[in-house]
C-alpha cells in the first residue's frame, strides 16, 4: 500500500515527536516506535497499488508550483471505537484546496473507492497515539489536553510513502519520494 502525506515544518514535527516520547515515557502509547520511519504527518491520499515511477513523475509536475500551506491545529480528537487520538487542523480554504486539487489531478491512480482519504470522507488529522484501550485513550487525552495549546504550523513537503505490513499491521513506512513546497515568505 502507498500513501501521500503532508509533512510539517521542523518546529511542529519536533513538538509532535516530543508528545510521542512523553506518551511513551508514561507507558500510555508506543505509537512512535510501532512503525519504522514514522514522521508526524497528515495523510492526503492512499492507494492499494501504484506505479511508483509514474506517481513520482506526476508529483514532480503537480507539486512543482505548489506553495506551503499554513495550518492551525486547535482540536484534539478521536475516531469512534478506534483507540486513536489525534490533532486536527482547522479546515481552511488552503488545506481544502490542497486536498481537492491533489485528488482531482491524481484521480487516475485512485484504486480504492472506499478510502477514508477521498474528498467527502477525509478528516484531516495528525495521529498522536493509536490502538489504545479506553483507559489509555483517556490518559492520553488528559495529558495532551493539558500539555498542548494551539499550534500554528505549515505543510512544507509532500511525500509518497510505502506501507510495509506484517500480519496486517504496518511495521515500516519508508519515504519513496518527497517534494518540498515553495516557501511563501520573502527572505530579506
Automatic annotation (TrEMBL):
Highest rank taxon of the organism: Bacteria
Signal peptide segment: none
Listed Pfam families: 2_5_RNA_ligase2
InterPro entries: Cyclic_Pdiesterase
Identification of the protein by name: 2'-5' RNA ligase family protein
